[in-house]
């Protein structure tokens, strides 16, 4: 499942992506015809995974090896809207790498329309990575 449509820009510390998939009837995260705001966490997790892959592809990084990962936690989740599917604007997602080592990457994230001063959904997420050559648990 790929929810993101395009990468707007990225660097070693962050990535910004955009998507229209929150408005699509076939979005795989919809339940009872609706897409709750908490689903924005999946958009952020996909952006974080893409950020890690782009960093490795761009020359590798000793502090961020490419390894399978799993979403381990979401903290400080702030939902300022109830649903994503009824928002008419394109969804914008930014994740910022705040800490990483061989087994864990921590990101702060914001999801909104890219224009409002306050994001629709924000928080932090942690991705646990497996050592090279091992599958994540």
Would you summarize the structure shown here?
It contains one helix and six strands; from the N terminus they run E-E-H-E-E-E-E. It is mainly beta and about 140 residues long. The chain is globular.
Structure, explained:
By secondary structure, the chain is mainly β. It has one domain: Roll (Thiol Ester Dehydrase, Chain A), CATH 3.10.129.10. Helices cover 13% and strands 36% of the residues. The protein is built from 1 helix and 6 strands. It has a 6-stranded antiparallel beta sheet, with helices on one face. A hairpin with a 3-residue loop joins β1 and β2. The longest helix has 18 residues. The chain is globular, with a radius of gyration of 15 Å. The mean pLDDT is 88.
Give the tags:
mainly beta; 137 residues; Thiol Ester Dehydrase, Chain A; six-stranded antiparallel beta sheet
Helicity, in percent? 10-25%
Query: Which architecture name does CATH use?
Result: Roll
Domains counted in the coordinates: how many? 1
**Mean of pLDDT:** 88
Q: How many strands appear in the DSSP assignment?
A: 6
Low-confidence stretches: none
How many distinct helices? 1
Strand content: 35-45%
Order of helices and strands: EEHEEEE
Strands side by side in the biggest sheet: 1-2-4-5-6-3
């Amino acid at each position: 499942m790929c929810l993101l449509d395009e990468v707007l820009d990225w660097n070693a510390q962050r990535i910004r992506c955009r998507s229209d998939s929150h408005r699509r009837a076939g979005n795989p995260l919809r339940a009872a015809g609706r897409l709750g705001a908490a689903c924005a966490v999946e958009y952020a997790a996909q952006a974080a995974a893409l950020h890690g892959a782009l960093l490795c592809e761009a020359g590798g990084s000793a502090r961020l090896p490419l390894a399978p990962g799993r979403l381990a936690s979401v903290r400080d989740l702030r939902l300022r809207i109830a649903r994503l599917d009824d928002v008419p604007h394109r969804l914008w997602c930014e994740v910022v790498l705040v800490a990483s080592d061989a087994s864990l990457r921590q990101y702060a994230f914001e999801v909104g329309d890219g224009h409002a001063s306050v994001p629709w959904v924000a928080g932090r997420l942690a991705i646990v990575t497996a050592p090279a050559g091992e599958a994540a648990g």
